[in-house]
Amino acid sequence: MPFFDAIRLALTTIRTQKLKSAFTLLGVCIGVMFLISVVSIVEGMGRYMEDDLVGKLIGVNTFELRNRPNINIGDVDQATWDEYRKRPRLEITDVEPVTSALPADTKWYFISDGQVYVSSSSSGKPRRVQVSAVDGAYFDMKKLGVSSGRVLSEQELARGEKAVVLGADAAKRLFPSLDPIDREIKIGGVPFRVVGIAETQGQIFGMSMDNFLVTSWRSPARRFLNSRPNIVDAVAIQSPSDPAMKETMETVRAVMRAQRHLRPNQKDNFALQTADSALEFWNKIKGYLVMAGIALPAIGLVVGAIVIMNIMLVAVAERTREIGIRKALGAKRRDILLQFLIEASTLGTVGSAIGVGLGIGLAKFISLVSPLPASVAPWSIVAGVALGAGVGIISGVYPASRASRLDPIAALRQE
């Protein structure tokens, strides 16, 4: 039987025996659907992490000096946590030696931040807001623009003036239906003037990135962020290139070790954290997601393979006389084998094509009703269809082999 005739026969079988075909295709369809949806969500989260989240958290060619990493990869044992707790906090006295050793084309800022209750005359009750007390090139490195008003000037940051830039959500919560510019808020009872509203930053996994305010580190706000006012939570440093960043990291490491009088055999009691740390953290999670995501498609595909094989065995039994006639007319064993393999692979391919469509729809639906981003990878569509065809071929080998070995005389006697 010609190749396209075998495909046409398989499609005719699907069309004329809809209920049986639906059960035949169900397993492959479900398996490929879960494969496409899981891969789409993992792919979408990966792009989000690499293109958006990491840039917002740390930035390109940027690293942070902290007393301990705030992004930890995998399980951290108790001994490591105990060592973290014993580390001295960064203080303002650490900042000057570090920043003075940096190359001239390097940008930096330092920050203390935390959740603090903030009130206004319009908010009714204090609102919990992420407060960042900063100094240096914070607005430049974060690329934080404003939708109205202005950012804090270098003079306001240096003088510690009581002025703030509000995030979009914080502005709405503190000043519902009012323009916040030049109005007053209170942090711990201390009045601050609003000079700007930041451009919308969006959400991370459903959490708002706009419920914040930024003020000068030298303002009274830092007293409400840490038990000791001279504490600095992080120093962010940005180099013009990746090689320059690695050299700068070694410079900062040397300065900090000298600052803390560490001997050559002693470990660093501070952390230098890059975007690679966040990506490595994500890749670890991604590995677990992919392993978990393989289980559901695998179950569906195994079930689909068993169902296709049984259906093909039934088809061989029903068409035994047809096989006998074909052999009597000169069809060779390989012709019969090829015919049933093509029919089985067609069933698998049709099931996988439907599964691809449902998987894309499921991924889009999940991204609409949840904070999980989804991005359909073209390679996953090709892989899904190829997997379905492969399952069909594998499950069709035994029935096709059985059909090809039929004796033509015995087959012709079959009623």
The ordered H/E elements are HHEHHEEHEHEHEEEEEEHEHHHHH
Poorly predicted spans: none
Helix content: 55-70%
Q: How much of the residues is beta strand, in percent? A: 15-25%
Number of helices: 13
Largest sheet properties: 6 strands, mixed, barrel
Tell me which oligomeric state these chains represent: single chain
Mean pLDDT over the full residue set: 84
**Strands, total number:** 12
Rounded to an integer, what's the Rg over CA atoms?
32 Å
Assign the structural class, choosing from mainly alpha, mainly beta, alpha/beta, alpha+beta, or little secondary structure: alpha+beta
The largest sheet has its strands arranged as 2-3-10-5-7-6
Globally, the shape reads elongated
How would you portray this structure in words?
By secondary structure, the protein is an alpha+beta fold. The chain has helices spanning 3-16, 18-57, 78-86, 92-100, 138-142, 154-159, 168-174, 242-259, 275-318, 320-328, 333-369, 378-404, 408-413, and strands at residues 62-66, 107-120, 127-136, 146-149, 163-166, 184-187, 190-198, 203-204, 207-208, 212-216, 234-238, 271-274. The strands form 2 sheets. A 6-stranded mixed beta barrel has the order 2-3-10-5-7-6. The model has no long low-confidence stretch (mean pLDDT 84).
